[in-house]
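Q: What changes when iron/sulfur cluster is included in the input?
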Amino acid sequence: MFRLANDASPAPMAGSLRDPQGRTLDYLRLAVTDRCNLRCRYCMPSEGIKLVGHQDVLSIEEMQRLGAIFTDLGVRKIRITGGEPLLRKGAVDLIAGLRQLPSSPDVLLTTNGLLLDQNLDALQAAGVKRINLSLDSLDADNWRRITRRDGHDKVLRAMDRILEMGMGLKLNMVVLPGRNEHEIPDFVALTRDRDMSVRFIEPMPFDGAGKPLKAISGDEIMALIHPAYELQPLENPEGAVDKLFAVDGHKGNVGVIEGHSRTFCASCRRLRIDARGGLRTCLYGKSQVDLRAMLRAGCTDDEIVAAVRDAVSRRLEDGLAAEKDSKLGGLESMASIGG
Ligand code: SAM
Ligand code: SF4
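A: The predicted holo structure follows.
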């Protein structure tokens, strides 16, 4: 386990993180960078976002130390995200290091897939068993219009290779009215012969520019699937944010994530560390603890644990309350929050 040389404190006291609503927080999403090789319209403007300075992102060692602290606090699942996490030097080593923590947490990855080809073997060797791959169109031209970059073929190749390698796959599609909702049935069709999950996500107000995105609700998304496909609700593990459905005759399944309607807050078990090292207890809330400042001020593990517990003790009941409280005004990019 990595600990800073000046940290002579004993390991933090074990004990899970429970918020005032009684929800156990055992899932951490870690944004390892805010840099990205795409410019998805719903995530950032064409010129990109104001990036965190190189010295201001957490080092791999700092993230490893936080991984140790949070797993001691009961975190069982860590998702590496960003920005594009595979742009971060050392990301695969970090994953391997987190997997080796005493509690062997599940370490997962969310990626746009552009750099998967050269990283998949190492990711599997590091212990990644499931990948969330973002893909918003099956049509190369439409994908380029949404992401403002080239590389669609690489993402499609990555999708097939993940499955060939026997890794779990969830394909995430942000539904953008007027741009890709007509492709929803084609995405469902992908699950006919592939054992994977396709999840349709409501667009959320995190485009880094504060430009309102055209809304579409989970129910409206469902209505676009229904005419062509027979769906059966599936049980989902506690804390999952997607409404999951089996599709008649398909190997895979489909889900809807009502991230804007926020229908899943009552069972949300997530914490986030954003690209600045800020701890967020809700996607819609502001950073509650400057973990980077604490790490660099030489705080002990116990001091960090106390600050995390304090933030968790103030966790609001849902994303609507957190948004009201944060007054952020939708200006942030999902790439810096760590979507
Ligand atoms: N770059 C990686 C990727 O795209 O998979 C990881 C980071 S990205 C911020 C994580 C997820 O957030 C992606 O599935 C992306 O589609 C989603 N996302 C980004 N901005 C969003 C928004 N405004 N509304 C809904 N989902 C969004
Ligand atoms: Fe990059 Fe992911 Fe945001 Fe697209 S959604 S711009 S790939 S961080």
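Observations recorded in class: Residues 60-72 form the longest helix (13 residues).
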